[in-house]
UniProtKB/TrEMBL annotation:
Protein name (database record): Twin-arginine translocation signal domain-containing protein
Alphabetic keyword roster: Plasmid
PROSITE patterns: TAT
Lineage top rank: taxon: Bacteria
A Pfam family of this chain: TAT_signal
Organism: Azospirillum oryzae
InterPro entries linked to this entry: TAT_signal, TAT_signal_bac_arc
Length: 184
């Protein structure tokens, strides 16, 4: 008697066919919106910063502190901490929302579209340079450096091992063992 193997054999064609069907089903379930990457849900979860302002701020902070190896989630966490501070300070809340609107206006003036819609990084940087003397820019840049780099998960991604004072400092702990320091 011959034994038949009834397991499903997955080859490239079946994989692509199954994947396409899954994406179509996901699109139907989500009302036709299938999003890859940053979702607007995090922006709507903020209490003070408006969703449109949050999207603009996300792109802004990615341009201020660009790290290809960091996903948007780390930047979103940093913006959420700024949103929490803005919930206690109406002046900061206004500064963030109005500043994002002003950034979009500057982007429209230079490139004809909102800041987050500009594809080329060099074009977005040109917009940032046009507002770099504003209190809004200074506030976001100053707060984001702390909010982004105070996340231990970010430390791991960037190769920072944490404080070393309790171990006698960096000089005896291989301070030059990080590859990107040697390349600089």
């Amino acid at each position: 008697m011959r034994v038949l193997d009834k397991r499903i054999r997955l080859n490239r064609r079946n994989f692509l066919k199954t994947s396409a069907a899954s994406m179509a089903a996901a699109g139907a379930v989500s009302g036709g919106i299938v999003s890859i990457g940053a979702t607007p849900a995090w922006a709507e979860a903020l209490t003070v910063v408006k969703p449109d302002a949050a999207k603009t701020l996300l792109v802004m902070v990615r341009d201020l502190y660009p790290h290809d190896r960091l996903s948007d989630a780390y930047y979103e966490t940093a913006l959420a901490s700024m949103d929490q501070a803005a919930a206690k300070d109406a002046t900061l809340a206004g500064q963030l929302n109005e500043g994002a609107v002003a950034l979009d206006a500057a982007a429209r003036k230079l490139h004809g579209s909102p800041y987050a819609a500009i594809k080329a990084e060099k074009d977005r940087v040109a917009v940032l340079k046009s507002i770099e003397t504003t209190p809004f820019f200074a506030k976001v840049r100053g707060d984001m450096v702390v909010a982004l780099y105070n996340q231990p998960e970010v430390w791991a991604k960037l190769g920072y091992e944490g404080a070393s004072a309790e171990y006698g400092g960096y000089i005896h702990r291989g301070f030059d063992d990080i590859d990107w320091i040697k390349d600089a």
